[in-house]
Design goal:
By secondary structure, the chain is an alpha+beta fold. About 15% of the residues lie in helices and about 30% in strands. The chain has 4 helices and 22 strands. Helix 2 packs across helix 4.
């Protein structure tokens, strides 16, 4: 997805709108997470409507709308860039000044509003969102005016980083590998990071998860940064729904480890230089309905063992996968003296099991 500087982005925005009117735009763990890895149109109307532009500015405060835990899925189907959004609340990330295509596929009449950046309407339910020029947090709200349904995107405008040095604003990042593992796009160095503040750290990134659950446990410094991939959040929502269907009344999944900086990953003794935790699309999770800080007895055999982790892994395989197969890393871990069993999942781009 191209990243454009602010002034250039606004110039391109005008050209983009013209093109939209002519053609429309298409939808367009700790140790072990690398072990035993194996690779594995209908024509649009010719008459374009007048452009509708919704814009705003980044504000110091963040308004977190009411939760939708009971009905996490939205009747709307929205595509934001490459991400297909199904939940009523979902977090996405963009670079400053980036222009992202937005399409709503199953509504006849929608309103799109942005509290920061600009949302420009093209043909029908095709829009183009222009991110603010500065890092921060924005909100894009889509409303179906006929069905009184809505969907809200919490947009993290990332703090760019050129990978010179080993820290950002005094926060130790460490070093990412300059070469992507196996040439895979999923292993390219991050372009930027979410700047975590007291205002946004508790923001909902989906109906049942908050940003704070995925933050690095690294100590020190007054500033904090993070990464969080939309695919991971959506997968965890799917898994949580399946866990509940199995009779486990979990409010959320316990995220034992989410994002890690390369500095922190090395500090805890993990020698895996390509750990998916570094890229924001991995999580070590377990079910903890009784809030004792450990995995519950999911298979109801009277014990809490790795069998419960395998029980959860089977749910992940079917709930978060396509045709019963989860494309990514999936590993189970038994209990240790300082923790209970857990499951690691990630979106490395190929299938790995351990």
């Amino acid at each position: 997805m191209p990243v454009l500087p602010g002034g250039t982005a606004r110039a391109v925005a005008f050209v983009s709108v013209v093109l939209l009117f002519l053609t429309g735009y298409v939808s367009v763990t700790e140790l072990g997470d690398e072990v035993r890895a194996r690779p594995n149109g209908e024509a649009m109307a010719q008459t374009a409507p007048a452009p509708v532009i919704s814009s705003g500015v980044l504000s110091a405060s963040w308004k977190d709308d009411a939760a939708h835990e009971d009905e996490p899925r939205s009747p709307l189907r929205l595509r934001f860039g490459d991400d297909l959004i199904r939940e009523r609340v979902m977090a996405v990330s963009v670079m400053p000044g980036e222009s992202v295509p937005v399409s709503i596929g199953n509504a006849r009449s929608v309103e799109v509003t942005a509290n920061a950046g600009e949302a420009v309407q093209g043909l029908g339910n095709q829009w183009l969102y222009h991110a603010p020029d500065k890092p921060g947090t924005a909100r894009l709200t889509v409303r179906d005016t006929e069905r009184d349904a809505s969907l809200q995107l919490h947009i993290f405008v990332l703090k760019p980083w050129d990978h010179r040095g080993t820290s950002i604003e005094g926060y130790r990042i460490g070093r990412y590998q300059s070469e992507a593992r196996g040439g895979l796009e999923t292993y390219e160095r991050p372009r930027g990071f979410v700047r975590v503040t007291e205002t946004n750290r508790d923001v909902r990134v989906s109906p049942n998860f908050r940003l704070a659950q995925f933050l690095c446990k690294q100590q020190g410094g007054t500033t904090e940064f993070a990464l969080l991939d939309t695919k991971l959040i959506q997968a965890l929502e799917d898994v949580l729904a399946a866990v509940r269907e199995k009779g486990h009344d979990a409010a959320t999944l316990h995220v034992m480890s989410g994002f890690r900086t390369p500095f922190y990953n090395r500090a805890i003794g993990n020698t895996t230089i390509y750990s998916r935790h570094l890229y924001g699309d991995a999580a070590d999770v377990f079910v903890d309905v009784d809030n004792d800080g450990r995995m519950d007895d999911l298979n109801r055999d009277g014990r809490v063992t790795e069998a419960d982790a395998r029980y959860l892994a089977d749910i992940i395989e079917s709930a978060a996968g396509e045709d019963g197969t989860f494309i990514g890393g999936l590993g189970t871990y038994g209990p240790a003296s300082h923790r209970g069993p857990f499951v690691h999942l990630d979106f490395r781009g190929y299938t790995a099991r351990w």
